[in-house]
Amino acid sequence: MAIVHFPLKLTARRMLAPTVAHLSFERADGAPLDFIPGQFVQVHFHYADGTATKRSYSLATIHDHAMAPGEAVEIAVSYVSGGAATALFEGLDIGGTIDASGPYGRFCLMPADANQRYLLIGTGTGVTPYRAMLPQLEQLIAQRGIRVVLLFGARTPVELLYGDEFRAFADKHPEHFRFVPCFSRELPAADSAQAHADVRHGYVQQFLEEFTPDAAGDIAYLCGNPNMVDACFESLKAAGLPVPQIRREKYVSSK
Fold first, then answer.
1. 5-104, which class in CATH?
2. Which of 240, 237, 231 is nearest to 250 (CA)?
3. What is the spatial distance between Cα 12 and Cα 22, in angstroms, rounded to a whole number?
4. CA 249 to CA 222: how far, in whole Å?
């Protein structure tokens, strides 16, 4: 089957962290880009020598309905010094277009899931699909009382992408959603909004055991740094979680 390409027009840009941008687009061809939270789009472009290349970006759009034409298509992009994709996005003016295809991927919540809890584990822009899943998680909380733990790894408080949104969701659903930021280098100031009981100092994989993975009731999602994904995958297997209950997606910062 031929890949269908479409133009995305940049409508807004804001920095989530010193090297991560949240970009909002709309389809310039007037069609909707409906997707299942957890899926990604591919952006197609060329290196300076004319060689074709592409990059994959999870959709960050808060998605709770069928998407209509003109609705926002949101992604988070890590800027890498000297990177060709970074140059593409940094040089893109509001109203400028890029070439995209998709959506793709199966890193999604499955309708047949009957688990009691989701363990969502992410680092960096690997947390993006979890933002898109929030409306689905809210529905599952209402429908069957699921519990969710989001373990999110960042180096410093300023790199905690979408942290305010996850914290607000946890405050709204205190019995069902725990947001556990894990800072590897620097903890938030004691008097800041990010300083609360669930903050941890270290890497996400160090704290998995604390949440007692349970083969009978848990499904885990791993997204982000490949080393983290591999380490958590092995830890979850060792804790008895069957491989089909561990869903993975690795993020590599590509130049």
1. mainly beta
2. 231
3. 8
4. 6
If you classify domain 117-250 with CATH, what class do you get? alpha beta
Domain ranges in the chain are 5-104, 117-250
Q: Tokens in use for 77? A: 């992009």
Q: What is the DSSP string of the chain?
A: -PPPEEEEEEEEEEEEETTEEEEEEEETTS------TT-EEEEEEE-TTS-EEEEEEEB-----S---TT--EEEEEE--TT-HHHHHHHTPPTT-EEEEEEEE---S--TT---SEEEEEEEGGGGHHHHHHHHHHHHHHHHH--EEEEEEEESSGGG-TTHHHHHHHHHHSTTTEEEEEEESS-PPPTTSTT-STT-EES-GGGGTGGG---TTTEEEEEEE-HHHHHHHHHHHHHTT--GGGEEEEE-----
pLDDT of residue 46: 93
Q: What is the pTM of this model?
A: 0.93
Distance in Å from the first CA to the final CA of the chain? 28
Q: Is the pLDDT of residue 69 over 70?
A: yes
pLDDT at 180 > cutoff 60 = yes
Of 108-112, 165-169, 188-192, give the lowest mean pLDDT range: 188-192
Nearest of 143, 162, 139, 142 to residue 152 by alpha carbon: 162
